[in-house]
Amino acid sequence: MAFYYRLFISGPRFRRCWIFLIIVTAVVLLLFIVVPWTNKCQNTQTIIRDWSIFSIDNSTEYQQAHSVLSDSSFRRQFRGEEIRHLAFLKVHKAASSTVTSIIQRFGWERNLNFLLPARSPNLISQNESINVNNIISDKDATFDLLCNHVIYDKEQFTKYLPKDTVFIGIVREPFDQFVSSVYYYKYRWSVPYLARLPSINPVKYLLESPNQYEPKKRHDSYTRNRMSVDFGLPEELLHTTDKRKILLYLQELNSEFKLVLIKEYFDESIILLRRMLNWNLRDVLYVSKNSLKYVPKINVRDRHRHKQHSFLDYCLYNFFLRVFWRKVRQQGEDFHMEVAYFRQLRSAVEDFCNEEKRNPAFKRRVFEAEANEFHPDIAINKDLCELMTLNEVDFTNKLKWRQFPNLRP
Ligand SMILES: *[C@@H]1O[C@H](CO)[C@@H](O)[C@H](O)[C@H]1NC(C)=O
Ligand SMILES: *[C@@H]1O[C@H](CO)[C@@H](O)[C@H](O)[C@H]1NC(C)=O
Fold this sequence. Notes:
By secondary structure, the protein is mainly alpha-helical. Helix content is 51%, strand content 6%. It has two domains: 2-41; 49-333, Rossmann fold (3-Layer(aba) Sandwich). The chain has 18 helices and six strands. The strands form two sheets. Strands 2-1-3-4 form a four-stranded parallel sheet, with helices on both faces. The protein has a two-stranded antiparallel sheet with strand order 5-6.
């Protein structure tokens, strides 16, 4: 007030000050009101700020709490029957190869039958669900397991798998998943639309002008809402601003999937998976594959662009992250003990298998872990190490040739 008062009584400079004041006020108005408002209009999707909408309703929660609690005690782990009918939705660039490797080993050791790709060494399809043309089958073939890339569609999945099949998926923090896809499909596979991106900071270029690079058909993109594409989310959800519609769809998915793993909490996910499937701890041991971590130079604006660019993936991820933590909370305290124990055991097994590979003097040694409250006796030899480190294409071929001997070259 004092400032305005001085302006009024400041005589001849009075008019200049007023003009100055009006300009300052106009600039402030523009910055704080008009700019955010126009941003909002350009991007209706930012309207959805409140992620609490992506929690699930009480009745679903209640049912789940009870279905999980009924098998939560690991002390009963050897009593329950292990689940052998399983469909794992292999989502792109989300640590899904490690899960595939676990499932392939599980099925191999029990002589189970897999739905296997007919057209490519390890992909059933990048743009379709399961159909007669993309899987290997013969007239009386039956299947137990699925863990190669294919688009989710409940109807198609249930057509080829037994009625009691359990569905499992995985998601990853959307930005990391995106960055990993850009580099992997640009450099490893030279996917044309990504190959056109400049080599210096391709991530930034793609985010700045997605329409210049992104394919028209969403199934052809590895970098736009790819996790949602893999989960078979309908196209209309990409264009809706109705968050209820998205939520309803995610709730439906949640009723179909027994568990969606979270890449960022991988060992917790694996233990939850083990418990839900009544598998043995030995069955879920894995050896980490080298995975490169790219750190592109990007700023807050780029991050924001990505949230618009792959909006549905954020909904999907946030939704299943909540569901995941709820399931973890429903486990007893022993859950975290089991995770901690698993980390130690897994790392020791990994060291053993790596040493086994490097050092021929190690041959025929066996890694042993005595029975305890987490598992019966475990013995790991060279053959098991080989299965654990076998790459996806070789493992898929190994399964294919056992299931369909006439396809062996
Ligand atoms: C949640 O749903 C269950 C079963 O429908 C019901 O028994 C329970 O009282 C509900 N809880 C709340 C907080 O509404
Ligand atoms: C899926 O991709 C394959 C090969 O890239 C192509 O031949 C096929 O037409 C595509 N299918 C659909 C439904 O777009």
